[in-house]
Amino acid sequence: MLTSTLAPASQTGRSALGGLVAAIGRAIETAPPEQLPQAVCDALRDRLPAAGLLSAQQRQGHADRYTRHILYAHPQGLFTIVALVWRPGQITPIHGHYTWCSYFILEGDMQEEHFAWDPATRCATRRGIVHRPQGDAAASHAGMEEIHRLRNDGAGTAISIHVYGVDGPRVSTHVNRIAELAPA
């Protein structure tokens, strides 16, 4: 579910978002392409958590699936910042990315399951699981070399902040590149 929401209602929230946007913009302008996702990840670590970043509306999830709230879309389409709200047990499909991605666990605990891509079978095989506690961050390049699946494995709501190298209107169609799991 993709929801476009307004900027944070408070001055504190607007300031936090503005600082985050500026830090990500600097990372994109200065990092070489092979280091860009990690540079954005470092910017997330430096700027988050930030008081008031999300409004009450942007903290709302959906009972049946994780929810995306667009926080900022760069006017030239260089990147989009999205808050994902996860209820307990909610999970993404197994996927690679059409674009680079960096994310930060703002609240709660997440689990990231990693997969290897087999071009011969065009399927993914399990490689391992990483626990992503609040304050952790990760980054990946576009392609099928860094396939993963995210899940809220905690008892409460989790919120993650994602930055994708795609313009806002294309977040729901040009980010996740779905992969099938290889038969056991």
Automatic annotation (TrEMBL):
PANTHER family: CYSTEINE DIOXYGENASE, CYSTEINE DIOXYGENASE TYPE 1. Keywords: Dioxygenase, Iron, Metal-binding, Oxidoreductase, Thioether bond. There is a cross-link at residues 101-164 (3'-(S-cysteinyl)-tyrosine (Cys-Tyr)). Fe cation binds at residues 95, 97, 148. It comes from Bordetella genomosp. 10. Pfam families: CDO_I (PF05995). This is Cysteine dioxygenase. InterPro entries: CDO_1, RmlC-like_jellyroll, RmlC_Cupin_sf. GO terms for molecular function: cysteine dioxygenase activity; ferrous iron binding. The lineage of its organism: Bacteria, Pseudomonadati, Pseudomonadota, Betaproteobacteria, Burkholderiales. Belongs to the cysteine dioxygenase family. One of its GO terms (biological process) is L-cysteine catabolic process.
